[in-house]
Input
Amino acid sequence: MIRRTLLNASAVFALGAASLGASAQTMVLKAADVHPAGYPNVVAVESMGKKLEAATNGRLKIQTFPGGVLGGEKEMIEQTQVGAINILRTSLGPVGTVVPEVNVFNLPFIFRSQEHARAVIDGPIGDELLAKVSASPAKLVAIGWMDGGARSLYTKKPVRTPADLKGQKVRMMGNPLFVDTMNAMGGNGISMAYGEVFSALQTGVIDGAENNPPSMFTSNHFSTGTKYYAQTNHLIIPELLVMSKVAWDKLTPADQALVKKLGREAQLEQRALWDKSVEEHTAKLKAAGVEFVPVDQKLFFDATEPVRAKYGAKFADLMKRIAEVK
Ligand code: GTR
Output
């Protein structure tokens, strides 16, 4: 009799566990970023961790690994795919090599301005792209966007026109699309991990790079003699907050919903911090002697038309919808 009760009880438990999927377990989620502590993206994920810990009574926690200690973005994406990293904040740039559908946001001058990019990622197109990342075979679950500002060129010699880039080796993020972009802009694009750029600038392996003011400052790239910042704004690339599918599948549906909600809140917190960070780091760069050179962006827009034609052909409808967003 007793035996039968026990058997029944375990059958009921097995049924319950199967229908609930993952059980609510205790986990410390490893979160990685190439940026150092204090950078808006890192701060936003830290605060997401505090909220997650509070909401689950300490059952779920986030441990942050900033400053690229777990590798460059390419390696970190791979580690997230296999579950060695649980949460990753990355530029969409290198994600385009594993989820080609996101490359539409990686096209030069796809967005007219940061405001335009925000309107797009906050609307249905932004949601569609997040869903595409999660539905792809890349084993990444997209939990939110972050702002990446506008990327402009920094070089040792001033650049005002595409002709000024002739013969200059400029570091680009790891995605062939970006090397093509730099080549079309008049320079020689060199793909390299973010963490290697400082010494490459110092030793003259490259003549310049491109990024937003907070990255140019916090990476110390400005201190290598690259004192001309040509305001091309050629790439406005949203950043992505993703979770490893391996970790995601261990969460209960309720925990998944909580992570998604907090991911969205992290996006909004980062945005507020981002605007302040751009202002602060632009001022710091200027104080350090960096000259902000205004350029005719139309010249660079026209020069990069072949890149939009080559990589954008399959996104024609989407590009039209992006352009129509006010
Ligand atoms: C930054 C971006 C990073 C990284 C870096 C780079 O603006 O936030 O995720 O992509 O640029 O140039 O590699």
